[in-house]
Specification:
homotetramer, 370 residues, alpha/beta, four-stranded antiparallel beta sheet, 12 helices
Amino acid sequence: MNAVVARTRNRTLPEQLPDLNPYHIPSLPELFSMIIVMEQGATPEQIKHMIERVEAFGLKAHPIQGTERTVIAAIGEKRSETKEALASGPGVESVMPILAPYKVASREVKKEPTQVVVRDLKVGAGSIGIMAGPCSVESKDQILACAHAVKKAGATALRGGAFKPRTSPYAFQGMKEEGLKLLALAREQTGLAIVTEVMSTEEVPLVAAYADVLQVGARNMQNYRLLEAVGKTDRAVLLKRGPSATMEELLLAAEYILNEGNPNVMLCERGIRTFEAHTRFTLPLASVPYLHHKTHLPVVIDPSHGTGHTYLVPDMAAAAVAAGADGLILEVHPDPEKALSDGYQSLNFPQFEETMTKCRAVATALGKKL
Amino acid sequence: MNAVVARTRNRTLPEQLPDLNPYHIPSLPELFSMIIVMEQGATPEQIKHMIERVEAFGLKAHPIQGTERTVIAAIGEKRSETKEALASGPGVESVMPILAPYKVASREVKKEPTQVVVRDLKVGAGSIGIMAGPCSVESKDQILACAHAVKKAGATALRGGAFKPRTSPYAFQGMKEEGLKLLALAREQTGLAIVTEVMSTEEVPLVAAYADVLQVGARNMQNYRLLEAVGKTDRAVLLKRGPSATMEELLLAAEYILNEGNPNVMLCERGIRTFEAHTRFTLPLASVPYLHHKTHLPVVIDPSHGTGHTYLVPDMAAAAVAAGADGLILEVHPDPEKALSDGYQSLNFPQFEETMTKCRAVATALGKKL
Amino acid sequence: MNAVVARTRNRTLPEQLPDLNPYHIPSLPELFSMIIVMEQGATPEQIKHMIERVEAFGLKAHPIQGTERTVIAAIGEKRSETKEALASGPGVESVMPILAPYKVASREVKKEPTQVVVRDLKVGAGSIGIMAGPCSVESKDQILACAHAVKKAGATALRGGAFKPRTSPYAFQGMKEEGLKLLALAREQTGLAIVTEVMSTEEVPLVAAYADVLQVGARNMQNYRLLEAVGKTDRAVLLKRGPSATMEELLLAAEYILNEGNPNVMLCERGIRTFEAHTRFTLPLASVPYLHHKTHLPVVIDPSHGTGHTYLVPDMAAAAVAAGADGLILEVHPDPEKALSDGYQSLNFPQFEETMTKCRAVATALGKKL
Amino acid sequence: MNAVVARTRNRTLPEQLPDLNPYHIPSLPELFSMIIVMEQGATPEQIKHMIERVEAFGLKAHPIQGTERTVIAAIGEKRSETKEALASGPGVESVMPILAPYKVASREVKKEPTQVVVRDLKVGAGSIGIMAGPCSVESKDQILACAHAVKKAGATALRGGAFKPRTSPYAFQGMKEEGLKLLALAREQTGLAIVTEVMSTEEVPLVAAYADVLQVGARNMQNYRLLEAVGKTDRAVLLKRGPSATMEELLLAAEYILNEGNPNVMLCERGIRTFEAHTRFTLPLASVPYLHHKTHLPVVIDPSHGTGHTYLVPDMAAAAVAAGADGLILEVHPDPEKALSDGYQSLNFPQFEETMTKCRAVATALGKKL
């Protein structure tokens, strides 16, 4: 990171300074076990061959003779290619891994939940952080009006896109650095933390110089170079789930960031692509308790993208809080009808206030801070 | 309906007796409009041909000449085949319907929400009804223990399967009539309304003789003969969404029931099939506010099937309440580990109590009765 | 089956008469094995408890101590509830079955492919059978014209719906028995085998009295009573995959039919529901080689429903043949623009001939009969 | 592009030299039309407001009064934000666009199919190009053996990954520049064109210096900066469909490349993510005729990733040819069991030869060159 970033650094977490990467333990072996299921007609030679293959990987092989077929349990420490290599062996029907392939993100490695703290934004461990603002930064008036309105209603972070990933090359691509400067100005006036998307490795230093939280968008969830680049900054990261990513892929993407030494990762569920067409995406709130079971990282819900329709956002925001979400990211615009992007899923100011009131009632009923 | 059913009738709704079918208005024409989009290179002859085709259906045709292509707006009263017939015309790129094909279920036909009332179970219009009990009726002891436990915790209906639809022909198929009798006994002891599945038209009279609410399972959502048969009874119906059904298909399935004169239909979201494998199905809670927007019928959520894992049920039950659900249906078993079916997604009694406490807190915070 | 059915019987397979149910072996035990994966923190007591549970089911338990967690291999003969029961045990993370739950349909039980023969229709074991005709029987002229046209182009069976399952209760529901009579008339004139859908158990005797092949539609794939009813007839069955059914569910549905003693089951892939909207369904042709690997039953492809657009049908029909399909079922109509249903995906007569020419070229190139 | 790239340039297409970007017509206005459907209860004021909004965008508004509701047809030339902006207007139910948002890729702009020619690889317009080779370049021996084997069996391009996008940060990440050098060596020995993936903008110059075809992987299909970067090179591009991308998104991604002046884009269908778990992805071959209908760009199928299992690849390769594919990309490895990646879906040399024989038979039967 360059000097510009250092100057704007603001979420100093002193207790982490001695070791900026508490999770990165390069010497941790990847513990490993799996079950190799042989076909019903597998010959003794094939079984013997597979046992030798397992042992050649340095694993212990436990063959188990069933009434219909044989399975081989393989146990030890090994790299993740092993499964792929064994699956194409002769007489093998399938290989079932038993350990999750992610480690640092795992609840098994760190029991207590991680709380990401950036200025007044607190996400996780009983605190629900609200990030709100327009899809795109469009003008000074627009972003400052949003910042003051969302702060007044209880948000602690301002979201707003300066670099916009657009499906069409002919669509508005964002105000770029000019937008970043306006976000910084809004922070100066309100104290809100700034959340904004970074789309490519080259843009990381520039965006990190202005933002408090780097958002990795759903389309870039598996852009591994970008994950590595944000993992090398000292900015918190909001990692959005890709619309067809599995939970395991999401956690492995987080692992790319954590593995570079950046512990401040928030996972964001923003909806998956299914056959449903009445909503823009299908928002699976069960991701919240599932991820809480598997990982210590906080889970943020995006009801705006997750539904794609303004009128569905307030109920789904309240539902996300009831499901245990650690944060919400919401699109808010002074005049959604005139928004340059995503107007159809943005709340106006009164709608945002009403949503906050509803969410706060649910949070309070469940003993959470919002 | 036969005499047996009449004797066990219990949810008399006197104000509806003069007209058992307030929604069925056979003279209501199916109002109709659609847009026919012609291909870019469509010839004047093709356009003329399609205008004549539209008019042959008794619709008015409004051709609109665009800069690149022509569209024809067709307006009038017509049956639903029209769209299909026109879509294969020469030079036609696509046909877009503008009116929803369901009518009686539509919010446009009846503005105020429908409340289904069966004994003490009240579902809709501000009341959240809780239906709880085991997947299958397994024994007298089991079902009576369940009935007393769920009643004590606040449920007003007992669910329990006597006829079980099982993916495998080798799996436990239910206690059948013996199970129905045990359900009736549980009702006698507790006053709980009985919810149980009916799987085929032949079984409707038998099941209706014992049950208060007939459940049409997800696999039968488009079993039209069965929909017609339950539509002819005076029992309330819980209609489960098929795992790949669209909202429109669900509402049209409800329409089959309503169209027979049975107004007491509850729609049940129980999860859809997606690429996600960490949950049994993906539970899209946005169905709740969406359906409330489109229909006056109450919406029930099934977090047990919708997640497939006991540990995810309490949070998703609370989230469903926050999303505005009018009812919950939950699997509860005295000893899930020994359940003959669905043990992995059933709550035990203490877990059910805890879930109820959580849901009641959310409902109260949002001004609902539970 | 009643006398009417007996009179119209036509596909006598003498070598099967002594035993009408060659696959049904009630004494065959359900062989069984599975792996129970314990959570990482599972206690010795929990592991001991699960071993006892496994043994209480009459299975042998093989615990395997890994570096991070313990797995228990369970082997023996047991009914299919076992998995469900064990999955909710204390300290259990997951249970992975190792044997497919279907038996009679399995390639492991019968190695050689099954050929279904009905009149001149031959499906499987190197012969590709073509079933073609309109979505619905609409009139005498229409069905006879279709029958003669498809026969001339090479089809050996005539498809046509008399009882139509329609998403909307307001749509055309079919000509019912009148339609069946017209189909029988078409058979009389052309010798084509008749394929038509049966929608409910009550209709089975009537439809079986006229039809050669009973089609179970996609919406009814898991209507278990209907599967049992067609399994009790001596008619061949075309079982369509439900749009969200897994391969295992499809094979288990076939098992319901086979298990009643009817060996003449054809599996039909007609597309699955996915996020894709440019086709009506997504047609996964990999189902063909996959099913050939798993089952001896023949596999038929329906490119009409599988794509939903006439212009995609010829290429996908040819692709299905190249993928190894044992049969095709195609919608053909004299004037698709005027069809009462499915006109947008029907071929007219010249298009059908062209499709047949293309398919025959591919079949010949690959050494198949069509 | 730098000098290194210029030196290795090899697919000079003289007739295109005068204008390297035949499709890029910056002055082409984005023609536009759409239908705004008002809610049933929309007031005259709301309708008037929307007409004014449409006209404020410089579009002509054609209101159409239906029996139940009003629709407004909007016609003119406008940028793509218009739809989004209008959809959130008061009383608006939905907005339906009528024109496809892509232009340069559209069949409407260029009627004749594009053939991409790179050395001996010819893809499109009647020629089927075969790209084959290992998932990853692993060693000199491995890649040279592959190159000679696939050339002998009829491939005209060698695929092989040097920079590997891996789901897990702990998996093998490729040989990087060393791998590129080995690919160049293989080209020197065999004359095969080289196809290899580029994962980030920084790597574009390096990869383009060695490769003939730049592959943009499925995970990067919407990495817009990367699309722009490969669009600025003079290398052909193989653009893989993201596993949850719609056809429209794929074509818009191609548009990003074409729009930079690079006309040599091949679209690659490699399977989508659905609920199916018996294959790694679901391979929808209907993409081939659909894309041929919509775009002039050639369509390549990847049966290796599309199925994820070696035993399914030969049949699906033949099916792809029958569906009209312009090219195939196939994973081939000398010893799949020992491959460092994707061994379970790789063909060995005899399997590849057999696949080629099958595909050639189908291609010949259909009058195509392979």
